[in-house]
Amino acid sequence: MRFTCVHQGYELYGSDRSFVETVRVIRAAWPQAVIDVVLPRHGPIVAALEPLATRILVEPLWILRRRDLPGLLTVGLLRLPLALGRALVRIARSDLVYVNTTVVADYLLAARLFRRRCVVHVHEIPEGVVRRVLRMLLGWSGCARIYNSQATRRAFAGEAAAGRVVYNGIADPGSPKGTTYRGDRPLRLLMLGRISRIKGQDVLVEAVARLPDDLRGRIAVRIVGSAFEDAERERALAARVAEPDLRDCVTLLPFAPDPSEHFRWADLVAVPSCLPESLGRVAIEAMAHGIPPVVSEIGGLPEVVADGRTGWLVPPGDAAALSRRLADLVRRPEDWAGFPEAARARYLAVFAERASAEGMIACFRSVLERRAGRLPAEPRTE
């Protein structure tokens, strides 16, 4: 068996870690398979993939990103034939090709000639023109589809769309630390993610700034992440946090490949996304650690959090509403004392690795079995 797994990233943020986990599922289910991983460049993800992949290939990919579209549609078109040629060769040599996004255009264009052996994992909710382009590209490819949430499936083709919804599985971090916040120390609030307009770091900072002075002294905020090709936004955030009303309660820290230390520190996790998250991996990771998340009511995040039981939903982009919620949480810790246990239980029931692995394997098997006369050996699921 030969698998080719294609990913558009090279860091270790949420989508990157999800890709690593999918490669781990393939390796566990088909331990003797040849697994080629294709990345656009070297980065932190390589070390995580090395124990799982047979080969890691760094090759130029024709990736559709909004900021790159002017270049792709002009000079970039000269590179497209070569990119298509590489993709066709890789697909032709593979029993199954797994593409971890809809934005790798060269592989989706090439897949039309080999649609019986390709799977696209849809885990983005684009908007406007980008959504229309990606819908057309996905339809053209004819690939089997895995959606990471109901919200993602609705965004691309509605409830009746072909394909499976398989929630991202998150590795169990082990026994949660349990509730330690009783109101006798500052509430520890964590935010993880790339610094971008989508993630809402500025909304969280403004929400904290709106807290009354006495409450602002009872909260400690840790924002962990770095900008993705947007250094000016990162500088602006650092300048705001350095102002007198925030510098004593908000700390900025750089991207961390392993965020476990930050989860062990936190009492709550904030996911104040301003644009739709396809699911919300950080919120799931928080619940796996037994940490209730405060998330925006947008995209797939409402599928993750049971509002008022395992965490809280707030309107996206509404710093005032988020500030009010934070004030309530600081003032009345007894009201949410049972949330950490409930969050952990929801993670185990819905988002643990086994359920995700079973869904992914079922999809891969159905694609492999459609190859005329070629039935793979029964994969292992333990």
TrEMBL record:
Domain of life: Bacteria
Stated name of the protein: Glycosyltransferase
Matching CDD domains: GT4_PimA-like (cd03801)
SUPFAM superfamilies per record: UDP-Glycosyltransferase/glycogen phosphorylase
Domain Glycosyl transferase family, first and last residues per copy: 186-344
Pfam family, one: Glycos_transf_1
InterPro entries, A to Z: Glyco_trans_1
Lineage: Bacteria, Pseudomonadati, Pseudomonadota, Alphaproteobacteria, Hyphomicrobiales
GO molecular function: glycosyltransferase activity
Gene3D superfamilies recorded: Glycogen Phosphorylase B (3.40.50.2000)
Keywords, ordered alphabetically: Transferase
Span of the signal peptide: none
